[in-house]
Design brief:
Blueprint lengths: L1 H8 L16 H5 L5 E2 L12 E6 L2 H12 L6 H14 L11 E4 L4 H7 L3 H13 L2 E2 L3 E3 L11 H8 L3 E3 L7 E9 L3 H12 L3 E10 L28
Parallel strand pairs: 2-8, 3-4, 3-7, 7-8
Antiparallel strand pairs: 1-2, 5-6
Length: 238
């Protein structure tokens, strides 16, 4: 609320495209309004059905980084609205909507201290308000992990295996995992494993944005310019 009021009083630039005005302009908000099913390729074992509100590129990427790294907390509302749209688009909550809980993927404690905020919890709370659900931080780190930057899909899966655990038993609790960005899906798969181990009913996962797959040349062939592929439209594939 305070961040929204400041946007009205102080001149701001759109976090997505740098146009003068509100925290996120209408054009950039529109980029967040097309949720669709997504599967990373390769898809890690145990990844639940997944919906992304947008592709992690251009203004969407800029807005997510501004919220996460630059502390532009007013972005939680439009980004949370996009995340709520992805949750609803899963289509798995109709029979359990009164009980379902949104569970954010936990950030490393040192990252939270460095940023001065827990961006994942903030987005989960904003999405829950938009969707009329609850959000609860039910996962914690079980051990330290290496920096994921530069790791491929298999290395990320190895790095994260057994890295999360539930705070307590969750027998039969219907949950939806939520996060800001999905890349290989390894983090969401590990979070789903930890929740299932505690007895939760993992209905799916939703993210604000999914990274674009890049075309890689075959060995021995000239390398063409890389181009982004669209998000997969195959629900439940893999």
């Amino acid at each position: 609320m305070l961040a929204d009021l400041l946007d009205l009083v102080l001149p701001r630039l759109c976090a997505g495209c740098l146009a003068p005005g509100r925290t996120l302009c209408d054009r950039c908000c529109a980029l967040l309004s097309g949720p669709r099913p997504h599967r990373p390729d390769p898809c890690p074992p145990g990844l639940p059905p997944l919906v992304a509100a947008a592709s992690y590129a251009g203004p969407v990427r800029a807005a997510l980084l501004a919220h996460k790294e630059d502390g532009r907390l007013g972005l939680a509302r439009p980004l949370g609205r996009a995340l709520a749209g992805a949750v609803v688009a899963l289509g798995v909550l109709d029979d359990v909507s009164a009980e379902a809980v949104l569970v954010p993927v936990p950030s490393a404690p040192e990252a939270v201290r460095h940023r001065g905020q827990d961006h994942a919890r903030r987005l989960a709370a904003a999405a829950a308000r938009e969707a009329g659900l609850r959000s609860r931080s039910l996962l914690v780190q079980a051990r330290r992990t290496a920096d994921q930057s530069g790791l491929d899909a298999g290395q990320r899966a190895d790095n994260l295996r057994g890295a999360l655990r539930a705070r307590h038993r969750l027998d039969g609790l219907p949950v939806v995992l939520v996060d800001d960005v999905v890349t290989t899906g390894a983090t969401l798969a590990e979070a789903a494993r930890a929740l299932r181990t505690a007895g939760a009913d993992v209905r799916g996962a939703a993210v604000v944005a999914a990274t674009l797959r890049m075309v890689r040349p075959q060995v021995g062939t000239p390398a063409p310019p890389e181009r982004a592929l669209p998000l997969s439209r195959r629900a439940g594939a893999g």
